[in-house]
Amino acid sequence: MVTSSHEAMHRIFQHDPGLFSRVSHFLGADIPRPVGATALPTDLTEDSPVERRVDTLLRFDTADQGPFLLAVEAQGKKDPAKPSSWAYYAAYLWTKYRLPIALLVVCQDLRTAKWAREPMTCGPAQVPTLTLQPLVAGPHNMPQITDPDEARADLVLASLAAIAHAADPGVDAILKALSAALKDAPEDIANPIVDFTAQGLGNRPAKHTWRNLVTVELSFYTSYLAEELRDEGEDRGVGKSVLRILARRGLDVPSDVRERITTCHDGDQLNEWLDRAVTAQQASDIFEDE
Question: 101 φ, ψ to 5°?
Fold first, then answer.
């Protein structure tokens, strides 16, 4: 199942293709800054029943080394089937485009990152016909950007750093630096960063920290996260009204009823319960016919 965290880890390179050359510094490679970049189709399926799709595929044009392809894969855990898929991607892309290929794997935990960066060979030990050596970005080599000025200098890199360190104890400091840096950024620049960061954090506790920072410190009224927060705030308000009416009418509200009301984020459903609360004989009556 593709998660929002998975999507953010590779789509951020589509948003800012030049990020790869900046990230490569931390990966032990020195990739020149591209003078141009083009997003290519990610479907690598041939005329066979097996579908193969790379997460993100970009073509870079450089001033000194000519063009090359970058395939970006987001990897959440060890997967024994992945090395053969990655080898297929590299061979297929080389055959189709006749260009050098770089493979970048983005991880959020050290165990997966260590596994992904190991060279993968195909063939007898004496004759390794094919060797795959991905570049891996993860918590082991992505910087922990806790200085707002440093974050402000490269907002996209700071977002990727937060995503890579999503499970680390120090991620709150990274998020605070990023939110502080975004205060002065134009909305059209800041909004995608807010959303990439929220998606990349997934369901980890750090996402709640980020949501609070966005709510308290920032005013990104067109971003998906801000809209989601406003919707949730409205839902919580309706839920409180349901409970208040039941209490004013002297009805006992069992814990299971209270939990169902407070955890509901369906605005239409909450409004229906609100109407029923006015005439319900007991609190559970608001759930009638459900």
Answer: -120, 135
> Whole-structure pTM over 0.70, yes or no?
no
**What is the widest separation between alpha-carbon atoms in the chain?**
82
Contacts of 136 (CB under 8 A, 6+ apart): 27, 104, 105, 106, 107, 113, 116, 117
Q: Residues in the chain with pLDDT < 70?
A: 1-3, 46-51, 216-237, 289-290
In sequence order, what are the beta bridge partners of 120?
132
- Tokens (6 digits) for 75: 């990897």
d(CA 176, CA 39): 32
pLDDT score at 222? 46
Write the DSSP symbol of residue 85: H
- Taking the C-alpha atoms of residue 5 and residue 198, their distance in angstroms, rounded to an integer, is 8
Instruction: Classify strands 130-132 and 101-106 as parallel, antiparallel or unpaired.
Output: unpaired
* φ, ψ (nearest 5 deg) of residue 53: -140, 120
Beta bridge partners, 72, equal 56, 104
- pLDDT for 139 equals 94
Residue 35 makes CB contacts below 8 A (sequence gap 6+) with 61, 62, 63
Place of tokens 């990727």: 160
